[in-house]
Amino acid sequence: MDIKDIIKPENLVYDKSKVQIDTIMHYCPGCSHGVVHKILSELIEEMDIQEKTIGIAPVGCAVFAYNYIDIDWQEAAHGRAPAVATGVVRLNPDKFVFAYQGDGDLASIGAAEILHACNRGENLLVVFINNATYGMTGGQMAPTTLNGMVTSTTPGGRNIDLNGYPMKITELIAQLPGTSYVTRQAVHTAGAVRKCKRSLKKGIQNVLDKKGTSFVEVVSTCSSGWKMTPVDANNWMAENMIPYYPLGDMKDSVKGGPVSEN
Amino acid sequence: MAKVRGAVVVDKEGCKGCGICVDACPQDVLALNKDVNSRGYHYSYMENPDACIGCSNCGVVCPDTCITIYRVKI
Ligand SMILES: Cc1ncc(C[n+]2csc(CCOP(=O)(O)OP(=O)(O)O)c2C)c(N)n1
Ligand code: SF4
Ligand code: SF4
After folding, report:
1. Which residue's CA is the closest to the ligand 1 atom numbered 21?
2. What is the mean pLDDT of chain A?
3. Which of A98, A133, B10, B17 could pair with B42 in a Cys bridge, judged by C-beta atoms 3.0 to 4.6 Å apart?
4. Maximum Cα–Cα distance for chain B, whole Å?
């Protein structure tokens, strides 16, 4: 069979979502941010919520997310996306509001804002990209950097005595009764991307059903910060990050419901 | 079981040559081209088109969403 007979509109099975703006993203080759932008765009299209979606962009490499997903956006100061999202959703309770944050943004400078927004059970989705580093500023140590991991500020590797323990902030958040759904996913394989998409869909649906805060961590790569090829970064992540940050649901309940047993 | 054939179209200019699609393809269809696009990236292409089953794995993992996929039952 000739390729020309396969490449026909009636045989189309996978294409870019119309919600994703047709432009070249600034992200480095292989960056997990791109995969998560793609699946968010697909879900916003499939769930028909483009008109009611408001994203809150972080400081970090995803600061330009508003150039890539065709919805309303508000940019927040570093770490303050959950606080800004709180204001937006309280004034617009019928909108779907999500905060999109990196691990420097969420677990370091914004640690207070995220814990309190989740504790209040604000009706929003948090998408947390954990690439274990500050990507935008050149691969410095983040709270989530693994023990022994080399970064530009820990050239000898993270040292627990000096730098403390890699922070499992999603486990902490699963303890807060304001959350309804807390999960950790990844996007390094096709199977992982499909599962992550199902988790994000559930998080979005929970917000539409006004169930309180849903929180989806995505264990991610930053091949530039890690100084690896994108394929090596995915493999390194599977071997080193996932054992410390295991994938799966930590809480799937309702706001005010029992906290996670983790 | 019906046999399937697939084909992919890579947006050559959007591709950043990360190689993740090459790694994700279960049929070893894709490879990075020796040539580069206008931004200097070795873009992905179907080196072995007859083996494609249209599973969409390459498209699903592509961070830059530059793969469109077609599939037919034969
Ligand atoms: C108040 C303030 N402090 C510091 C910075 C510098 N800064 C910009 S991005 C960033 C870290 C971003 O890391 P992360 O949230 O992990 O996102 P990534 O770039 O890895 O996606 C820092 C410290 C800033 N912009 N504003
Ligand atoms: S520096 Fe890291 S997080 Fe930022 S775009 Fe590049 S790979 Fe992605
Ligand atoms: S995954 Fe996408 S950007 Fe990366 S090489 Fe393949 S087509 Fe190009």
Report:
1. A61
2. 97
3. B17
4. 43
B20 and A CB contact within 8 Å: yes
State phi, psi for A257 to the nearest 5 degrees.
-75, 175
Residue A47 structural domain: 29-252
CATH class held by domain B4-73: alpha beta
Residue A141 pairs in a beta bridge with A133
- Strand, coil or helix: A55: strand
pLDDT band for position A260 (cuts 50, 70, 90): low
Nearest to B20 by CA among A102, A28, A240: A28
Cβ contacts (< 8 Å) between A187 and chain B: which residues? 61
Q: Is residue A228 less than 8 Å (CB to CB) from chain B?
A: no
Tell me whether residue A167 is in a domain: yes
pLDDT band at residue B1 under the 50/70/90 scheme: low
Q: How many other CB atoms are there within 10 angstroms of residue A84's CB atom?
A: 21
Q: Which ligand is nearest to the CA of B64?
A: 3
The model carries a pTM of 0.97
Residue A206 lies in a domain: yes
B74 neighbourhood in chain A, CB within 8 Å: 1
Q: Is residue A231 a part of any domain in this protein?
A: yes
Q: Is the CB of residue B67 less than 8 Å from the CB of residue B18?
A: no
Strand A96-102 to strand A53-57: parallel, antiparallel, or no bridges (unpaired)? parallel
Atom of ligand 2 nearest to the CA of A61: 4
How do A72-75 and A125-130 pair as beta strands? unpaired
Quick check: is A79 in a domain?
yes
CA distance linking residue A2 with residue A16, whole number of Å: 24
